[in-house]
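Model the whole thing, not chain by chain.
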Amino acid sequence: MKSDDPRMVSVLSMHDQGPAPEAQIVRDLVRRGAMAAPVLVGASAIGWGADGAWSAGYGLALVLANFALNAWVVSVTARISYAMLMGATLFGYLIRLALVSAAVYVVRDLPWVELVPMCLALVVAHVGLLFWELRYVSLSLAFPGLKPAATATDADPSHAD
Amino acid sequence: MEALTRIASAGARAAAAAGEFTAAEAKANAAAQMAGLAYGLAAIGPGVGIGMIFGKAIEAMARQPESAGMVRTTMFLGVAFTEALALIGFVAFILLKFA
């Protein structure tokens, strides 16, 4: 690749101006998290009482905040440049991991905190919500006509005229 | 990992034998050290994985900008799945150290 070729564009200067799909994914994740919350909190309440329920709710909130922060960083930096996206997401991973650690560390000795249901909620909510979302995304990538936002004309070109 | 566990246990036994800690305290210290080590090790793999995912995704978007939306969707989910490994390591650390 010749760097002085005017047709060549460096990946460092490229950026994305289209819509941010991460925002849509996080909206879906939050909606599904709200649907799953009663089950998660209820199961923790049965096992560990009211403290377990509060702790599971806190764990679920941490997971959703982590997703939202990640999506915000990706969508903002992708509009600046792909190089910025790479750097921000790699450092963002470390920072978000530190934030989750700090959020658990700070509350670990509070009277309403039960560590086991909180940690279980962290892992189960993170992986469970992702699998739920993955099912929808893989379906909509394979069959774009199944997207809820698609109109009849998008799904069936014969209705276009 | 088994060798590290043996080393930590031997250190704990030696400290207990020297009278610096009780056996229970020495065991708790060894568990805390191993938990910290496990957390650190668990964060390395996802870090490498996330770097690879983003590197390949940026390459794909640079080659085919029109597919950026699809690439970013799968990239975001892939990164979140990879992060789950680090989260599991963190949970193991918290449970070993504080529970």
